[in-house]
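RECORD TYPE: inverse folding
INPUT: structure tokens
STRUCTURE:
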């Protein structure tokens, strides 16, 4: 073998090894995105599972505004009806998912605000327990979303960095979308003590 042939073979072997390493790194980061997305969905499902118990408790403890309860039930159905797998995590799909979750959050907030007008409901241990569980779940959702955004940021950086971007393009690794604040979160709430 000539010296040139040996150099070419060594370069091709090194390039192949680097390509395998890049591919495996991208697969590892893609899997981390899938795992953290599953964690996000688990927390949202936990919230959705608490809602029927909350609604039953409210219905049983007070002659409650039916429109408020119907809004919560409808929003829950809408939120649980949007199922995304890790391959569908485009910014547009995450916005749709987030919009449905925001609708559910808004209706839950209205339910809890209206519940303040019913002292016998607030005194019910089941309602207090469910309210505390819901608050804890909302905190878990925030943590899961932050973890997801961290992992997606790491993944997106790998997909876009040279020379990984070449291998990402060859093997079909696409950028993933982040969770972003909803439009409603952009304006501060009005506080009125009248």
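DESIGNED SEQUENCE:
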């Amino acid at each position: 073998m000539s010296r040139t042939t040996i150099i070419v073979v060594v370069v091709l072997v090194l390039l192949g090894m680097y390509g395998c390493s890049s591919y495996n790194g991208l697969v590892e980061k893609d899997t981390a995105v899938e795992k953290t997305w599953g964690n996000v969905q688990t927390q949202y499902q936990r919230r959705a599972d608490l809602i029927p118990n909350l609604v039953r408790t409210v219905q049983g403890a007070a002659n409650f505004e039916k429109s408020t309860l119907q809004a919560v039930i409808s929003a829950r159905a809408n939120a649980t009806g949007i199922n995304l797998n890790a391959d569908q995590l485009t910014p547009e799909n995450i916005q749709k998912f987030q919009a449905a979750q925001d609708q559910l959050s808004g209706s839950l907030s209205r339910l809890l605000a209206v519940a303040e007008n019913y002292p016998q409901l607030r005194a019910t241990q089941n309602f207090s327990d469910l309210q505390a569980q819901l608050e804890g779940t909302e905190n878990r959702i925030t943590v899961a979303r932050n973890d997801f955004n961290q992992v997606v940021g790491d993944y997106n950086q790998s997909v876009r960095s040279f020379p990984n971007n070449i291998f990402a393009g060859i093997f079909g690794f696409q950028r993933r979308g982040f969770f972003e604040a909803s439009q409603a979160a952009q304006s501060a709430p009005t506080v009125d003590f009248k």
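NOTES: The longest helix spans residues 3-61.
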